[in-house]
Amino acid sequence: MNHLELGEQGEQLAVDFLKKQGYRLLARRFRTKIGEIDIIVKKGGMIVFVEVKTRRSSLFGTPAQAVNRRKQDKIINTAFKYLNYTNNTGVPIRFDILEIMITGESTAVCNHIINAFGR
Amino acid sequence: MFAQVFGSTILGLNGMLITVEVDVSNGIPGLDIVGLPDASVRESRERVKAAIKNSGFEFPTRRITVNLAPADIRKDSSGLDLPIAIGILAASGQIPAASCTRTAFVAELSLEGKLRGVSGLLSMAMNSIANRLAEIIVAPDNAREALIAGKFTVYAPATLEQIVSHLREESKLAAVVNNQKVVEEQWHNEDFSEVQGQMTAKRALEIAAAGGHNVLMIGPPGSGKTMLARRITTILPPMIRQEALEVTKIYSAAGLFKSHNIITIRPFRSPHHTVSQAGMIGGGSIPRPGEVTLSHNGVLFLDELPEFPRAVLEVLRQPMEDGEVHISRVNAALAYPAEFMLIAAMNPCPCGYATDTEKQCTCSLNEIRRYIKKISGPLLDRIDLHVHVPRPSYTELIANMPAESSAQIAERVSEARKIQLRRLEKFSIACNAQMGHKHLKATCQLTDEAQMILKQAFTKMNLSARSYDRMVKVARTIADLSQADRIDAVHISEAISFRNHLQPL
After folding, report:
1. Omega before B220 within 30 of 0, i.e. cis
2. Measuring CA to CA, which residue among A68, A62, A71 is closest to residue A109?
3. What share of chain A is helix, strand, coil (3-state, %, to 5)?
4. A82 vs chain B: nearest CA distance in angstroms?
5. CA separation for the pair B5, B101 (Å, rounded)
6. Closest-CA residue in chain A for B45?
7. Is the pLDDT assigned to residue B456 strictly greater than 60?
8. Average pLDDT in the B150-172 region?
9. I want to staple B55 with a disulfide (CB 3.0 to 4.6 A). Which of A1, A110, B17, B161 is the partner?
10. Mean of pLDDT over chain B
């Protein structure tokens, strides 16, 4: 399994996880020239932009640590594009990180970091 | 959603009411603080965030803007943590916004949500009273300081959580009350009776204490100059409430206020001779009080005067004359009070024995001259009483004759002060040393004989106008000590005898 397939698998797990938590899926892999947002969901009137990070081990730091300042800015700017595109400018928003740790053949651990970053 | 809460900060010695405005709106989640916050205020972002979360409340995932008004003055107090946190809670609807309109909030927050004390609280509390706020919420460490400020309701809860339930009217806090009696009694572990002999020096210090004059003690090493100086606080009159309040305010602002009650003992500051100019008169980007201000209404003791850098001694000139220092920096120009009594001690020459009657001085004339030159004429001119402190003889040293105790001297001093206060009350000054030329004219009548002596001294000693004034002031104090109405020949002669001893060398 290469890194792309791993990411795809992780995202699928993330969507399932979020749906179970009562989030409604709005978009997946929303891409613009500036950047990409993995998952956009909505719950209780708040739009949540989720960055999914999938890892097989934490040997290279936790997944969330890979979302550095530059990546955060990219996500924030892309989120603005999405809000404009969908005419949703007055809605409360939030940025989450979802860490997926694939621990075995058919087991994975999810760590949902709510309100992970902002400005 | 918008909320407004009152906080306070300190500029110089005066508190300043800060209106903390908080707006919570949609947008990228984050907290912005505007209104010229200094580093300690900008860092409060993280403390406030953690404190709110760890106290079990919700930190809104919204765009939060905090404005500190007035926006043109630099704020530098961690005490703004609490009003910012309360403002955020009020703006996000977690506490009723109307509940905090008459309260000042001053405390630093720990990450856990506990309240920590801040320095300068006394001034902030007094300023809040002046701004007609009815109550103040402070950290438990600051409770006693807030009570000194005056009549108003003080709450000192330990945690942010307690404040919130108080404002939500779930469980009311109990106001702090002053149940500790004011201990007026001064207690010293030093006494003048421990100093054998040195009658002239003791007399000079008594006069100095009575009139608030400056003293320079000259003598060989080990003759007791430092010992004498340290005992001066034991004979100084107690501070009146106004003075005590000023001193307490200064120590509170400088972060040196440790006691539980208003400071009643006059400060005694003895900076080491490596002190810098800024350390002496105050400094910093927002100027902080220096040694002269910390010795306001008390004693500034400079041991080994010639060892101080010349520049440091020269900055003393203006505060000695005006009783306050003006410090201008980019961020603020402030005036600090500096009504202190200077007591200085020095050796007459590098080896120390130039004035000794028995031991031979080993310094050359040039060395002595260079040593004395380190202290400028204008500074010496401002020191009213010069006194030699000789090495005590063996018989003096082992004498069992009880010397006069501090209490006895203090009684005479306080009598003399009372006379001065009665006479100078209408000019709103407290002691003879603070008199200006016009006060001198109005209050110091000399007898004809005294006038004659003064005239002779003025021409013979080539006195300056200032030293003339100072000499009359000292004579006035001597007259007050003997409870005389007019300045007589004895008084003026004694004043002259304490005049500049450094020049004939």
Report:
1. no
2. A62
3. 35, 35, 30
4. 13
5. 6
6. A119
7. yes
8. 92
9. B161
10. 89
